[in-house]
Amino acid sequence: MYGDHFVGTGPWYDCLMFAILDPAEVEQRLEGLIAKHRAKNISVAEIKRRIFETGDEDVMRENNLFNKWWLNCFRRIDEPSLVELLHAFQDAWNSFPHHSLADRSPQQVAQEESRKHPEMNKNANEDAMPTVTVGGITRSWEDHWKMIKRMEELQIPFKQWIDDTALPAYKRFLQTKYTTKRTVEKHYDVADNFLKRALHVGFLDFEQIRPAFAVWEFPDWWPSHILYSNLTEDQVWSSLCDFLWFAEINLHRSIPGIWETAAGEALSLDDRVVPPSLHSSPPTMKVGRNDPCACGSGKKYKKCCGH
Known about the structure:
This protein is mainly α and 307 residues long. The chain has two domains: 2-130, no CATH class; 152-303, no CATH class. It is built from 13 helices and two strands. It has helices at residues 2-5, 23-37, 44-52, 59-71, 79-95, 106-116, 141-154, 156-177, 181-201, 211-225, 233-250, 258-262, 276-280, and strands at residues 132-134, 137-139. The chain has a two-stranded antiparallel sheet with strand order 1-2. The longest helix is centred in the middle third of the chain and has 22 residues, at 156-177. The radius of gyration is 22 Å and the shape is globular.
């Protein structure tokens, strides 16, 4: 994807080993798929417009939001059709022009980089593996995977607690609290993805999760990465409060400093549970995550002093 291909000088260059995309052929393929699935509120012109107008601050996020938009235009898609659509729309993303790339497509940019840096060609060194930079630390591909394997070993007790205790107990709690299956699934899904994301990021236990990860980072991550969900950041945080409250009261596990960090955060679901610490000690200053920061930086609070 565009978001993977243009980070440093890494493996994005491999995309040049594939056949060059013909934008006219991609456009024709999209028109056929839209007609085949009788998709509404979508056209090739609208697809091209959205791709052209995407920003360049966080390309992966922009790409995910683009995928989320077109997925919502199609209904009742079986797995083979979904794979076909994913390929077609990713080809559109890579072959149609982006304003942020000076009206060029990612494919055109890749070709230009290929001509400027022939030494990066995969054929020049078939055995070379890319380096990986995480948290400002650069490692060889081999050392990176050793680190991942070691992290997975250390996470085994945490993962077992999630699978055997936390999620089953939380589902039983939700089933007694709510009457509709849809509501149970909504809240369970938030908790499930929160814990999976915590494992993916590399936390070794529940108490080691950073408060900012729960309050700011995970809700901010959700809308652009969980493509099948239309929950907003505030709704995700409100639902997550249910799980964090449940873990504290029933499982006797808590993230140190979570409610102090969360002070002032709005809870927007009607069927929410307000944690006792938030309910009994209202903060003196109410600042929402998307409100302008009071320091005058012009940034949202979540991206400035609230981070």
